[in-house]
From TrEMBL:
The name this protein goes by in its record: Integrase core domain protein
Coiled-coil annotated residue ranges, if any: none
Alphabetical list of InterPro entries matching this protein: Integrase_cat-core, RNaseH-like_sf, RNaseH_sf, Transpos_IS3, Transposase_IS3/IS150/IS904
Organism in which the protein naturally occurs: Streptococcus anginosus subsp. whileyi CCUG 39159
Superkingdom classification of source: Bacteria
Length: 167
C-alpha cells in the first residue's frame, strides 16, 4: 500500500510495526514495536519470551489507547505470521485501520530503530536476565528515545519535541 513512501502531514496517519529479538544470558526476549512515521515516536511496544501474535496485539493496543488515532490509520508491517494472522487482522478491522504489508523483514524505518536500539543499548549490555533486559528497554524507550533521542529527519529534535512543536 505505501511502498516505502514514508511521509505524512501529521501524527497517527501511518504506523510501522515489527518484531526483533534481544539476547540475554537467561534466554531470548522478543520486542514488538509500533512507530509513528511522522515523528519517529515509539507509540506502542510489548515484550515477551515468545514471538507470538499476542505480543503484536499487546503492542498495538498500547499504541491505540495512548494515541487514539482517527479512523483510517495505516498500519504497515512485514508479512510475518503475527501480522497476517486472524487475531491481528481482526483487531485492525475492529479499530477501522488499514493494513499495509511489504515482504518479510522489510519496513526499513523499523529496522533503523532496531539497529539504533541494539547499538546504543543491547550490544554491550550482556543482560543477565530477561527482567533486566525488559527494564532497560523500557527505560530506553520511555525516558530516552521518545523524549531525548535526536533525529536528523526531524531537524535534530526528539520525537516528543517534534510532535509538541508541530501541533
Amino acid at each position: 500500500m505505501i511502498n516505502q513512501c514514508f511521509q505524512t502531514k501529521g501524527k497517527n496517519e501511518i504506523w510501522l510495526g515489527n518484531l526483533t529479538y534481544i539476547p540475554t544470558k537467561a534466554g531470548t526476549l522478543y520486542l514488538s514495536v509500533f512507530i509513528d512515521i511522522y515523528s519517529r515516536k515509539i507509540v506502542g511496544w510489548a515484550m515477551g519470551n515468545r514471538m507470538q501474535d499476542q505480543l503484536v496485539t499487546d503492542a498495538f493496543n498500547q499504541a491505540y489507547h495512548r494515541e487514539r488515532p482517527k479512523e483510517g490509520l495505516i498500519v504497515h508491517t512485514d508479512q510475518g505470521s503475527q501480522y497476517t494472522g486472524a487475531r491481528f487482522q481482526d483487531l485492525l478491522r475492529k479499530k477501522k485501520c488499514k493494513s499495509s504489508m511489504n515482504r518479510k523483514g522489510n519496513p526499513y524505518l523499523m529496522e533503523s530503530f532496531y539497529k539504533t536500539l541494539k547499538r546504543e543499548l543491547v550490544n554491550d549490555a550482556h543482560f543477565a536476565s530477561i527482567e533486566q533486559a525488559q527494564l532497560e528497554i523500557f527505560k530506553y524507550i520511555e525516558t530516552y528515545y521518545n523524549p531525548k533521542h535526536l533525529h536528523s529527519a526531524l531537524g535534530y529534535r526528539s520525537p516528543i519535541e517534534f510532535e509538541t512543536n508541530s501541533l
